[in-house]
Amino acid sequence: MQVAFLGLGVMGYPMAGHLRRAGHDVTVYNRSADKAARWVAEHGGASAPTPSAAADGKDVILACVGRDEDLRAVTLGNDGAFQSLKNGVVFVDHTTASATIARELSAIAENSGFGFVDAPVSGGEQGAKNGQLTIMCGGRDADYEKAEPVMAAYAKQCRLLGPAGSGQLAKMVNQICIAGVVQGLSEALSFARAAGLDAEAVVNVISKGAAQSWQMENRHKTMLAGHFEHGFAVEWMRKDLGICFDEAGRNGAKLPVTEMVDKFYAEVEAMGGTRWDTSSLFARMEKLRGGKA
Fold first, then answer.
1. Which one is catalytic: 58, 156, 171, 292?
2. Residue 171 annotated in active site
3. Which domain holds residue 176?
4. Last residue of a domain, one of 163, 180, 198
5. Domain check: are 249 and 278 in the same one?
């Protein structure tokens, strides 16, 4: 396939690399041209100076940027990708953004004769590097069917969940789950230490039972070691939770635990942990009990 990838951040850089390894002809765009040049030197393919130039003549265009405003800029802004898209092309958005902008861009795409799929991902930096991402999608069946074989280059699980915006709503569900699980794990590990237990040994036992979670399996060692310079940053989690709160305000859902955890993340940021992994909630718990993560 002739493919463009817009945004070479922590997630986009390896995702675009998987597309090249899968045999697609890939043109990349990044706001920092130096990073795009580095990607081309590493993977081959080509780079373009604007989203519009990258998207021109492509079959599928994929994007993974930071926020709603970044997505709006690469699609609808000066030299935005939507200027170049023709009938039959599909634009896939991997950004974790609002369902509102997903519906907005989908409507524009439909009126212009091309497809749009909102497809936020879960699995973090390691999942992107390993090509093992979970992708939650919203859009029309025909558009998803064209995009799915391309996304398969870096997907462990990929599913269409409903019309435009459904992927973003599912990602909100994902982030709400993670917030509560990480706080629970942080409290549990801090309790284990306060009780004088070998926390590592305890996790080895309970991770084989009902308490098991991805966060426990993949984060307990770094949490106990006080290592948080990796993974999904607190500032990005708070951005995602803000999207959840906005949507909950519209649909009437109540998120008391998630709201509490967001306040805890604000305390982590005040500790200097804006770029720490989300598991740094443990550092806050250890600070509260007078220990050290």
1. 171
2. yes
3. 169-288
4. 163
5. yes
User: pLDDT of the chain along its 293 residues, tens only?
Assistant: 999 999 999 999 999 999 999 999 999 999 999 999 999 999 999 999 999 999 999 999 999 999 999 999 999 999 999 999 999 999 999 999 999 999 999 999 999 999 999 999 999 999 999 999 999 999 999 999 999 999 999 999 999 999 999 999 999 999 999 999 999 999 999 999 999 999 999 999 999 999 999 999 999 999 999 999 998 999 999 999 999 999 999 999 999 999 999 999 999 999 999 999 999 999 999 999 986 66
Interhelix angle 166-194/199-206, rounded to 10 degrees, is 130
Asked whether residue 155 falls in the same domain as residue 176, the answer is no
* Number of other residues whose CB lies within 10 A of the CB of residue 98: 22
Whether residue 241 lies inside any domain: the answer is yes
Q: Are residues 180 and 157 in the same domain?
A: no
Same domain, residue pair 36 and 147: yes
Count other Cβ atoms within 10 Å, centred on residue 219.
Answer: 25
Structure tokens at 38: 């580095």
- At 2 the three-state DSSP class reads strand
